[in-house]
Amino acid sequence: MKSIRNIAVALSLVVLATFGIGASSGCAESRATDIDPTEKVVKVEKVKPLPVPEAPAVDEFESNDDLKSESRNHTGFDKVSIGGAMIATINAGQSFEVTVEAKADVLPKVISKVEDGRLIIKMEKNWWKSMKKKYKRSNVRVTVSLPELKDVDISGASKATVAGINNDKLSIDVSGASDVKIEGTARDVEIDLSGASNLRAGGLYTQIANMDLSGASRAEINVASSLDVDASGASSVKYIGEPSVRKDTSGASSVYKN
């Protein structure tokens, strides 16, 4: 009798399990048939947050309102070297004076000194590493006055305006994509341009000019007597006047009369 009861219980469990599955399946089928195939399913995508833009670096050439000016006590020089993306004004034929303008935190990083009769103005080494996130450019402005200028060297993407030249001899060196405008009188001029630099010396009246240009540099010069040019790398010389011309050009370089 006990075994019969056990068999009956087992059969009951099988029947219940079977009906349970059937009921579950039936519900699933019922739910499936309730879905309208013409109904559009709207997919909701997660919206990504917009990136927050970084604060742009300040373009230092936009405003000079907050530049600080500082006089540097330098005398006894007739040569000037300026480098490091500066803007320079050099006035010959005047008393010694050196003024530097820059942001308050940049000003201490501008080095100026006199060595062997040469005024050197440049930026402190590696200064840009600590400032590049804050400023796009150094925006250092330099004004130099001196009685006589015999040699000027402008480098490092700097810009310079030179006036008041009245010399027997003058040496001009421009490099590193710098730009120089120079006016005055010098009988004999030595010019060296490199690194895609530009010399605007149409207002510098000379008798003799010896020029060496490389790296797609350009120059304009006013020469009365003799012009000697070595030019390479797509450099060009435009001259004003009626000098005798000796030229040695290579690449796409050229020497031509204005």
Protein described:
- The protein is mainly beta.
- It contains 2 helices and 15 strands.
- It has a 15-stranded mixed beta sheet that branches.
- The protein is globular, with a radius of gyration of 39 Å.
- Residues about 15-35 and about 50-60 have low confidence and may be disordered.
Could you say which overall geometry the principal axes of the C-alpha atoms support?
A: globular
Please compute the radius of gyration using only Cα atoms.
39 Å
Structural class: mainly beta
Largest sheet properties = 15 strands, mixed
- Between the first and last Cα atoms, what is the distance in angstroms? 129 Å
- Give the CATH architecture of the largest domain: 3 Solenoid
Proportion of residues in helical segments = 10-25%
Number of helices: 2
Average predicted local confidence, pLDDT? 83
Percentage beta strand: over 45%
Total domains: 2
CATH hierarchy class name of the largest domain? Mainly Beta
